[in-house]
Structure formats: structure tokens, C-alpha cells
From TrEMBL:
SUPFAM superfamilies, per the entry: Ferredoxin reductase-like, C-terminal NADP-linked domain (SSF52343), Riboflavin synthase domain-like (SSF63380)
Stated name of the protein: Dihydroorotate dehydrogenase electron transfer subunit
GO BP: pyrimidine nucleotide biosynthetic process
Domain FAD-binding FR-type, residue spans: 28-130
CDD domains listed in its UniProt record: DHOD_e_trans
GO-annotated molecular function: 2 iron, 2 sulfur cluster binding; flavin adenine dinucleotide binding; metal ion binding; oxidoreductase activity
Names of required cofactors: FAD; [2Fe-2S] cluster
Cofactor binding mode and count: Binds 1 FAD per subunit.
Highest rank taxon of the organism: Bacteria
Residues involved in FAD binding: 81-84, 105-106
Amino acid sequence: MLELEDAVEAPQCCHSSQGCAPEPQFAVAENLCRVVSNQWVNDEYKHLIVNGPEVALRAQPGQFFHLACPPDQNGAALLRRPMSLYRVSPHEGTIEFLYKVQGLGTRGLAGLRAGDTLDALGPVGRGFTVPASAGHILLLARGVGLATLTPLADWARSKGVSVTAVLSARSEGLVMSADYLKEAGANVLIVTDEDGTSQVDHVEALIRSTHAARGLDYVATCGSNRLLQLLQRITADLDVPGQIALEQHMGCALGACFACVRPFRKQADTQDLTYRRVCWEGPVFDLQETVSW
Ligand SMILES: Cc1cc2nc3c(=O)[nH]c(=O)nc-3n(C[C@H](O)[C@H](O)[C@H](O)COP(=O)(O)OP(=O)(O)OC[C@H]3O[C@@H](n4cnc5c(N)ncnc54)[C@H](O)[C@@H]3O)c2cc1C
């Protein structure tokens, strides 16, 4: 078991063309967390709240935990599953996750009840780095990408930074956390497949009009290739920095197994490639350096 004193040092350089992010100060530990609640929020997603020890409560927006999901009914052990920090409350001692119930691992998670123990390795990875001068940021999330971006809204509120959040989903019923983001002071814009507003040209028009009304200083997105390509095009045009949190199958989440390596541009303005571990150099990367898939 990894203890606090065995804390793993994070890498020394972010390799970004925008310079190195501040040295990460996080320690990674295997945290035995007590489940507070684990409720359905709609037909597909559950909201898990756990009590975590101090090291886990230091998690930053964009970081994640590698969760040991309970085994299936045959007792077969599973690899851990990565889940983004959704919310953290050091005051209440709680960490929250918002997850889609899909396969064996998340079905195991879905069975957790209040009082059960969840083994959560983390917090892992490099989170978002918003420019210190930013006054207005855009969060563009589809589906569960919202889980990863929501902590940025909490951070922005604490810093007095304005947030516009564009939430995309198949249908209105699958849009999550809109109320929470509004309470956090965000200007929330919802687009859905159902009414056709999630189409790329409409989302692009929405972002451009948002920027025209009040300049964006930073954008963040998560997961979707379509949204990545859209934001790469818009931010290159408007000269706005941005980042993406990537989702990638991974093994150890500690930079050792290299299962989550992906190609990246060495710098935003070059086609020369380099290879980075999503778990360790990421999961948050510069928008323009990320190679679409
Ligand atoms: C850094 C990071 C943060 C994440 N945060 C969240 C989150 O906050 N909420 C959430 O619901 N999901 C999140 N994911 C995705 C989540 O890890 C996968 O959905 C989960 O591992 C699926 O496990 P499973 O056993 O239920 O499904 P499996 O049976 O393993 O797979 C079911 C489906 O999920 C896909 N999948 C499996 N693992 C991953 C993965 N690591 N990344 C992307 N797709 C995967 C498979 O291709 C398959 O389509 C995150 C992934 C990463 C890498």
C-alpha cells in the first residue's frame, strides 16, 4: 500500500509551449474512504460522496482518483478505474465523483452503499492551469465531461472569475449540474442533440457570440474529439489559450506502465510529435498540442 511518506513525485516539466506549470505539490496515496452516499442522478449516472483523508482532500480541478472498483459476483479482481474529481470540500472532509454506469467496474461502483469502504488512489495527475490574469473563462462539456470541468467553476467563484458553461447532452434530461453551476455563478447555456442545438456550427456561433459580448481569456473542455477540434479552430482564430482533460484507458495511473501513452504535438505551432502519458503528464493538456483522434 502506498502511504503518505511514500508519496510519488510528479514530473518536473509540463512540456507545454506555454511554459512549465507551477511545480505540482500533490502527493499520491492509497486512501481508504468511507462512502457517505451513492445516488442515481438520472438513468445513466450516479453521484458518489465519500469521506477522504487529508491528502485526498488536497485534490485540484482536473486531477483524478484511480478507484478500486468492487469485484463482480464471480469475485474476479478488476484493474482500477480512473474518475475525475467532481467536487471536494476540505471543510466537510468529502470528495465527490459523478460517473456513468457502463461496464464491470462502474457497475461494481454503483453497488457501493453508505458505510462501505472505497479504495481511492490519488489525487493523480496535472490539473487545469488557468492564466492568473483570466477574468472570463469558458467551460465546454459534453456528457460526463461535466464531472471533470465542474471543479473549475468552484475555483473560478473563489477567485472572482466569470464562467460561461456550455453543456451539451443527447437530451435535456441528461444535462447534469446545470443548477449547481448556476449557483456557482456560471452563465449556463444548454445545447442538446434532441433539438439540434448541439451541432457544431451552432455551438461555434454560441462561443463566438459569448467572446464578442465579453472576451474569453481561457477555455477548457473534456473528452470529446468533436469539441476538441471545434475549440482548436476557434481558439486559434481568437488567440485564446485553452486546455483539454483527456480520457484514456490506463493501467497504473502512476506513470509506470505506459498504457496510456498518446501522441502530442511538441508545441502548438509544429506538427512534430512527441509521446506523453495521460495519467502523469496529464490528464490535462494544452488544447493546440493535443492530437485529435
Ligand atoms: C482521467 C480520467 C478521468 C475520468 N473521469 C470520469 C468521470 O469523472 N466520470 C465518468 O463517468 N467517467 C470518467 N472516466 C472514464 C471512466 O474511467 C470509464 O468510463 C470507466 O473506466 C469505465 O469502466 P467500466 O468497467 O465501467 O467499463 P468498461 O467495461 O471497462 O468499459 C465500458 C466502456 O467504457 C470505455 N472506457 C473504459 N475505460 C475507459 C477510460 N479509462 N477512458 C475512457 N473510456 C473508457 C470502454 O471503451 C467501453 O466503451 C475518466 C477517465 C479518465 C482517463
